[in-house]
């Protein structure tokens, strides 16, 4: 008899706002495993989101897994490497050990009209993350990637993908919370995370909903991360895909 493996998924949300401890405790109580916290925003020429470190601490205290993303400003004239340095320094100075940072590459209207310029900006950010010992990820989808980079494909196999696919905002616009709709594009043949719902009300947040595969390897890594965090009494962000 052949037994087919059915992929299991863990649920997450991504946020870009100030939160409270009760918000994160509510997430944990409602079977969410991870929260993606914005730590850099495009305001001005690009700036640290100072809600990031407090949100990370509260998520940690609630027992949630934590990922960090940055929304850079690609048109400000501030180098991508400088924007990466700013967010990494803010996290490290806040006592956070950073293993992964996801770079948001969405909303083509916020990017340069020159796709080569955009690709160079993204590559510079990725290279800076690597030089800091941090694994890079990108949050985008096929349409955004086409419009912003003309399907750039030379980023490197270590760059993880967090893709989004929704029909519209709100619960009624969700797609299936799995990866059955994924098709290779640009740099990626596989994905690590999917955003399947946008602008929903969850535990006092207005946020987006995500899933990621919870494989045996991921479970083992999760337990290892938890043990290491307890042993070192330090907060680590970034474990999906590692």
What is the average of the pLDDT values? Answer: 92
Query: What is the chain-wise order of helices and strands?
Result: EHEEHEHEEHEHEEEHE
Radius of gyration from CA coordinates: 17 Å
The total count of strands amounts to 11
Between the first and last Cα atoms, what is the distance in angstroms?
33 Å
Beta-strand content bin: 25-35%
Biggest beta sheet attributes: 8 strands, mixed, barrel
Q: Which secondary-structure class do the elements indicate?
A: alpha/beta
Number of helices: 6
Poorly predicted regions: 1-5, 216-221
Lateral arrangement of strands in the main beta sheet:
1-2-4-6-7-8-9-10
* Principal-axes shape call: globular
Helix residue percentage: 25-40%
Structural key phrases:
242 residues, alpha/beta, 8-stranded mixed beta barrel, two-stranded parallel sheet, 6 helices, 11 strands, 31% helix, 27% strand, disordered N terminus
Description:
This protein has helices at 21-29, 52-61, 80-93, 115-131, 142-149, 216-232; strands at residues 9-15, 32-41, 47-48, 65-70, 96-98, 100-104, 135-140, 160-164, 193-202, 205-213, 235-237. It has 242 residues and is an alpha/beta fold. Helix 1 links the parallel strand 1 and strand 2 (32-41). It has an 8-stranded mixed beta barrel, surrounded by 5 helices. It has a two-stranded parallel sheet with strand order 5-11. It is 31% helix and 27% strand. It contains 6 helices and 11 strands. It is globular and about 45 Å long. Mean pLDDT is 92; it is low at 1-5 and 216-221.
